[in-house]
C-alpha cells in the first residue's frame, strides 16, 4: 500500500466495519459474531472481506477449521478497542457539558457483590452530589472486564481470573462460598453431614464455576471431592442461582455472607464443608486510559479512599 492509499484510509474507511471486525475477534468466530450483532453470517463475512480490501491486509486467516488473527489483525484490534471506547464515551462527556458539575456513572458489576462499605460509599457520594446519575449493569466477570477495557463502563466490580495489562485492579473484599440447599431438598435441616453425603447430588452453580475460570477454588473443591460432573443448572446471576437452590432443583454454591438472612429465615440450609470454605476475591477494576468525567472521578476516588481506610481483615466476609 503506497502513501497516497494510506492517506485515503481516514476519509474512505467505513467505521462500522471496524466494530464488526472487533466483535469477530472477540467472539473468535464469524458465526458467533453474526449472532451477537444480530446479522446474517454472509453479511459479517462480507464486511470482513471489505475491510481487508480497504486496508490491503489479511486480518484473519480462516477456512478449513482455521481461525487465526494475523499480526496486522492484532494491531488493528487494539486500535479498534480504543476507538470504540472513545466513541462510546462521547455521550457521557457531552452530558457533563450540559449538566455542569453533575454527570453519569456506569458501573459494570458481577451479581454477587454484597459489600456494606460499597453501599455506604454510594450513599455518601449521593448525599454530597445528588445530581450524579447511575447505571449498574450486571454481567459475568469476564464481560465486566471487557466493558471496562472498551470504556463502555466507568469502572467494574468482579472476580478476576486473568488480569489484563491495560487495566488496574484494587482488591475490594474477600468472600467465602458455601454449599446450600432449599426447604424441598432431602438434606434440608440435616446435621452432621460430610462432603461424601453430597456426591450423589445435582448441583446448581454459576457459569464461572470451572477450573479455567474465576470460581476456580469452588470448582477445585468439587473436583477433589468427586462432585464435579453433576451440574444441572447454571446462571450468571446470584438471584437466579439462589432461586433454583430454594426451589429444590439442586444444591449449590452461594456467598455465605450474602445469604445469612435466608438461612435465618429458613429458606436455605448450610451444607458442608463447614470449615475452610473456598475463598474468592472481588476487585475494583478500572481503565487508566478512560477520560473520566467529574462524576466518575468522584465515585471512583471515594471507593479507593475507603479501601485505604478499611483494613483487609475487615473486608473479609463469611
UniProtKB/TrEMBL annotation:
<dbReference type="InterPro" id="IPR000847">
    <property type="entry name" value="LysR_HTH_N"/>
</dbReference>
<dbReference type="Pfam" id="PF00126">
    <property type="entry name" value="HTH_1"/>
</dbReference>
<protein>
    <submittedName>
        <fullName>LysR family transcriptional regulator</fullName>
    </submittedName>
</protein>
<dbReference type="InterPro" id="IPR050950">
    <property type="entry name" value="HTH-type_LysR_regulators"/>
</dbReference>
<keyword id="KW-0805">Transcription regulation</keyword>
<dbReference type="InterPro" id="IPR036390">
    <property type="entry name" value="WH_DNA-bd_sf"/>
</dbReference>
<dbReference type="InterPro" id="IPR005119">
    <property type="entry name" value="LysR_subst-bd"/>
</dbReference>
<dbReference type="InterPro" id="IPR036388">
    <property type="entry name" value="WH-like_DNA-bd_sf"/>
</dbReference>
<keyword id="KW-0804">Transcription</keyword>
<comment type="similarity">
    <text>Belongs to the LysR transcriptional regulatory family.</text>
</comment>
<feature type="domain" description="HTH lysR-type">
    <location>
        <begin position="13"/>
        <end position="70"/>
    </location>
</feature>
<keyword id="KW-0238">DNA-binding</keyword>
<dbReference type="Pfam" id="PF03466">
    <property type="entry name" value="LysR_substrate"/>
</dbReference>
Amino acid at each position: 500500500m503506497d502513501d497516497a492509499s494510506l492517506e485515503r484510509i481516514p476519509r474512505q474507511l467505513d467505521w462500522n466495519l471496524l466494530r464488526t471486525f472487533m466483535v469477530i475477534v472477540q467472539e473468535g468466530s464469524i458465526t458467533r459474531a453474526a449472532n451477537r450483532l444480530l446479522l446474517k453470517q454472509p453479511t459479517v463475512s462480507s464486511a470482513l472481506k471489505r475491510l481487508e480490501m480497504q486496508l490491503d491486509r489479511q486480518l484473519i486467516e480462516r477456512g478449513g477449521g482455521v481461525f487465526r488473527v494475523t499480526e496486522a489483525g492484532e494491531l488493528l484490534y487494539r486500535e479498534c478497542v480504543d476507538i470504540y471506547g472513545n466513541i462510546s464515551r462521547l455521550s457521557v462527556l457531552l452530558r457533563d457539558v450540559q449538566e455542569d458539575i453533575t454527570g453519569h456513572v456506569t458501573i459494570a458489576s458481577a451479581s454477587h457483590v454484597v459489600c456494606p462499605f460499597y453501599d455506604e460509599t454510594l450513599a455518601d457520594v449521593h448525599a454530597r452530589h445528588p445530581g450524579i446519575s447511575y447505571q449498574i449493569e450486571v454481567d459475568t466477570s469476564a464481560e465486566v472486564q471487557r466493558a471496562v477495557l472498551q470504556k463502555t463502563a466507568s469502572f467494574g466490580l468482579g472476580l478476576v481470573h486473568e488480569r489484563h495489562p491495560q487495566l488496574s485492579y484494587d482488591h475490594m473484599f474477600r468472600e467465602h462460598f458455601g454449599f446450600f440447599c432449599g426447604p424441598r431438598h432431602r438434606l434440608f435441616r440435616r446435621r452432621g453431614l460430610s462432603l461424601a453425603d453430597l456426591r450423589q447430588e445435582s448441583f446448581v452453580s454459576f457459569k464461572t464455576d470451572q477450573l479455567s475460570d474465576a470460581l476456580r477454588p469452588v470448582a477445585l473443591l468439587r473436583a477433589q471431592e468427586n462432585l464435579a460432573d453433576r451440574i444441572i443448572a447454571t446462571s450468571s446471576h446470584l438471584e437466579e442461582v439462589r432461586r433454583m437452590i430454594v426451589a429444590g432443583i439442586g444444591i449449590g454454591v452461594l456467598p455465605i455472607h450474602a445469604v445469612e438472612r435466608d438461612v435465618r429465615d429458613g429458606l436455605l440450609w448450610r451444607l458442608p464443608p463447614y470449615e475452610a470454605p473456598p475463598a474468592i476475591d472481588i476487585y475494583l477494576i478500572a481503565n487508566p486510559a478512560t477520560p473520566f468525567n467529574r462524576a466518575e472521578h468522584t465515585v471512583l476516588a471515594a471507593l479507593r479512599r475507603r479501601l485505604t481506610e478499611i483494613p483487609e481483615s475487615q473486608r473479609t466476609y463469611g
